[in-house]
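for the recovery benchmark. C-alpha coordinates below, seq after
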Protein backbone atom coordinates (compact mmCIF):
# COMPACT_ATOMS: atom_id res chain seq x y z
CA UNK A 1 0.00 0.00 0.00
CA UNK A 2 2.80 2.40 0.86
CA UNK A 3 4.56 1.70 -2.46
CA UNK A 4 1.40 2.48 -4.44
CA UNK A 5 0.95 5.71 -2.52
CA UNK A 6 4.57 6.68 -3.15
CA UNK A 7 4.25 6.01 -6.90
CA UNK A 8 1.03 8.00 -7.04
CA UNK A 9 2.64 10.90 -5.16
CA UNK A 10 5.62 11.00 -7.54
CA UNK A 11 3.35 10.84 -10.61
CA UNK A 12 1.36 13.78 -9.24
CA UNK A 13 4.60 15.68 -8.70
CA UNK A 14 5.72 14.89 -12.24
CA UNK A 15 2.46 16.00 -13.84
CA UNK A 16 2.31 19.17 -11.71
CA UNK A 17 5.70 20.40 -12.87
CA UNK A 18 5.65 23.98 -14.07
CA UNK A 19 7.97 23.13 -16.95
CA UNK A 20 6.64 22.89 -20.46
CA UNK A 21 6.25 19.66 -22.39
CA UNK A 22 9.60 20.12 -24.14
CA UNK A 23 11.58 20.38 -20.89
CA UNK A 24 9.79 17.42 -19.32
CA UNK A 25 10.15 15.24 -22.43
CA UNK A 26 13.81 16.22 -22.75
CA UNK A 27 14.39 15.36 -19.10
CA UNK A 28 12.84 11.90 -19.33
CA UNK A 29 14.71 11.21 -22.57
CA UNK A 30 18.09 12.32 -21.23
CA UNK A 31 17.42 10.53 -17.97
CA UNK A 32 16.90 7.22 -19.75
CA UNK A 33 20.16 7.35 -21.76
CA UNK A 34 22.53 6.09 -18.99
CA UNK A 35 20.28 3.04 -18.52
CA UNK A 36 21.64 1.59 -21.77
CA UNK A 37 25.22 1.59 -20.44
CA UNK A 38 26.93 -0.04 -17.45
CA UNK A 39 26.96 2.83 -14.96
CA UNK A 40 27.52 0.87 -11.73
CA UNK A 41 24.24 2.15 -10.24
CA UNK A 42 25.05 5.80 -10.90
CA UNK A 43 22.57 6.13 -13.77
CA UNK A 44 20.02 8.33 -11.98
CA UNK A 45 22.79 10.65 -10.74
CA UNK A 46 24.25 10.88 -14.23
CA UNK A 47 20.75 11.54 -15.56
CA UNK A 48 20.30 14.57 -13.33
CA UNK A 49 23.76 15.90 -14.22
CA UNK A 50 23.15 15.52 -17.94
CA UNK A 51 19.75 17.21 -17.61
CA UNK A 52 21.35 20.20 -15.92
CA UNK A 53 23.89 20.46 -18.73
CA UNK A 54 21.21 20.77 -21.40
CA UNK A 55 18.73 22.71 -19.20
CA UNK A 56 16.10 19.99 -19.18
CA UNK A 57 13.88 19.27 -16.21
CA UNK A 58 15.92 17.45 -13.56
CA UNK A 59 12.96 15.81 -11.81
CA UNK A 60 11.78 14.23 -15.04
CA UNK A 61 15.38 13.18 -15.77
CA UNK A 62 15.47 11.40 -12.43
CA UNK A 63 12.21 9.64 -13.32
CA UNK A 64 13.71 8.54 -16.65
CA UNK A 65 16.86 7.30 -14.93
CA UNK A 66 14.94 5.32 -12.35
CA UNK A 67 12.69 3.77 -15.04
CA UNK A 68 15.70 2.28 -16.78
CA UNK A 69 17.21 0.97 -13.56
CA UNK A 70 14.51 -1.66 -13.22
CA UNK A 71 14.85 -3.05 -16.75
CA UNK A 72 18.63 -3.00 -17.30
CA UNK A 73 18.92 -6.76 -18.03
CA UNK A 74 16.49 -6.32 -20.91
CA UNK A 75 18.36 -3.23 -22.15
CA UNK A 76 21.72 -5.02 -22.08
CA UNK A 77 20.21 -7.98 -23.92
CA UNK A 78 18.85 -5.62 -26.59
CA UNK A 79 22.28 -4.00 -26.91
CA UNK A 80 23.88 -7.36 -27.68
CA UNK A 81 21.12 -8.38 -30.09
CA UNK A 82 21.06 -5.10 -32.04
CA UNK A 83 24.86 -4.91 -32.14
CA UNK A 84 25.19 -8.45 -33.48
CA UNK A 85 22.46 -7.76 -36.04
CA UNK A 86 24.14 -4.56 -37.27
CA UNK A 87 27.63 -6.05 -37.38
CA UNK A 88 26.41 -9.41 -38.73
CA UNK A 89 28.15 -11.36 -35.98
CA UNK A 90 27.05 -14.04 -33.58
CA UNK A 91 27.00 -13.22 -29.92
CA UNK A 92 27.30 -15.43 -26.86
CA UNK A 93 24.07 -13.98 -25.47
CA UNK A 94 20.98 -15.64 -26.89
CA UNK A 95 18.60 -15.41 -23.93
CA UNK A 96 17.81 -12.74 -21.37
CA UNK A 97 18.96 -15.05 -18.56
CA UNK A 98 22.45 -15.16 -20.07
CA UNK A 99 23.10 -11.42 -19.52
CA UNK A 100 25.65 -11.06 -16.75
CA UNK A 101 26.13 -7.49 -15.54
CA UNK A 102 29.77 -7.82 -14.48
CA UNK A 103 30.73 -9.66 -17.68
CA UNK A 104 29.05 -6.96 -19.77
CA UNK A 105 31.01 -4.25 -17.95
CA UNK A 106 34.33 -6.07 -18.29
CA UNK A 107 33.84 -6.95 -21.94
CA UNK A 108 32.61 -3.47 -22.81
CA UNK A 109 35.53 -1.61 -21.31
CA UNK A 110 38.25 -4.08 -22.30
CA UNK A 111 36.90 -4.76 -25.77
CA UNK A 112 36.28 -1.30 -27.14
CA UNK A 113 39.40 -1.33 -29.30
CA UNK A 114 38.76 -4.70 -30.93
CA UNK A 115 36.00 -4.68 -33.51
CA UNK A 116 35.56 -8.45 -33.07
CA UNK A 117 34.90 -8.39 -29.34
CA UNK A 118 31.54 -8.65 -27.63
CA UNK A 119 32.25 -5.26 -26.02
CA UNK A 120 32.28 -3.62 -29.44
CA UNK A 121 29.06 -5.45 -30.33
CA UNK A 122 27.53 -4.23 -27.06
CA UNK A 123 28.54 -0.59 -27.63
CA UNK A 124 27.36 -0.61 -31.24
CA UNK A 125 23.97 -1.89 -30.13
CA UNK A 126 23.87 0.60 -27.25
CA UNK A 127 24.52 3.60 -29.50
CA UNK A 128 21.82 2.52 -31.94
CA UNK A 129 19.36 1.80 -29.11
CA UNK A 130 20.09 5.15 -27.46
CA UNK A 131 19.28 7.07 -30.64
CA UNK A 132 16.10 5.13 -31.44
CA UNK A 133 14.77 5.04 -27.87
CA UNK A 134 15.53 8.73 -27.34
CA UNK A 135 13.44 9.74 -30.33
CA UNK A 136 10.60 7.43 -29.30
CA UNK A 137 10.60 8.48 -25.61
CA UNK A 138 10.76 12.19 -26.44
CA UNK A 139 7.84 12.06 -28.87
CA UNK A 140 5.75 9.87 -26.56
CA UNK A 141 6.28 12.00 -23.42
CA UNK A 142 5.88 15.26 -25.33
CA UNK A 143 2.54 14.21 -26.80
CA UNK A 144 1.29 12.91 -23.43
CA UNK A 145 2.22 16.13 -21.66
CA UNK A 146 0.97 18.39 -24.42
CA UNK A 147 -2.44 16.78 -24.88
CA UNK A 148 -3.34 14.81 -21.75
CA UNK A 149 -1.57 16.42 -18.81
CA UNK A 150 -4.66 17.78 -17.03
CA UNK A 151 -6.77 14.68 -17.69
CA UNK A 152 -4.08 12.33 -16.36
CA UNK A 153 -3.53 14.50 -13.31
CA UNK A 154 -7.27 14.42 -12.54
CA UNK A 155 -7.35 10.61 -12.86
CA UNK A 156 -4.34 10.16 -10.58
CA UNK A 157 -5.85 12.23 -7.77
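predicted aa per position
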Amino acid sequence: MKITRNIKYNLIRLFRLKSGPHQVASGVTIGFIPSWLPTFGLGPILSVGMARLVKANTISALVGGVMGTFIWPLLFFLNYQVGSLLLDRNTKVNELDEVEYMDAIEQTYTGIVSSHSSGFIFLTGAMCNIVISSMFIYIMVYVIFKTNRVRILNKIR
